[in-house]
């Protein structure tokens, strides 16, 4: 995978994180801030580890995009209807968990 293909979803997620930080600053609650920074930190860490180890393949890139899309859905729900927010957050958490499991198995099984 090219560096651009791997890092593009990371850059989009960084942009979303900063946009939510500044846009919601006046009305953000502590739980909203924790939701917006907890999962992305794990996402950034995964990409930062996968890149130098050359394990950022097509599966990682595709799951990265799915993760970023679910974060956008969660961000839209944070700004609007809070009732459905849990489902979007859970979806993004499960995608990120799948990414970490895939990455860990590739490393541990020497794939």
From TrEMBL:
It comes from Bradyrhizobium oligotrophicum S58. It holds the Pfam family MAPEG. Signal peptide: none annotated. One of its GO terms (cellular component) is membrane. Keywords: Membrane, Transmembrane, Transmembrane helix. This is MAPEG family protein. The chain crosses the membrane at residues 6-23, 43-67, 87-109.
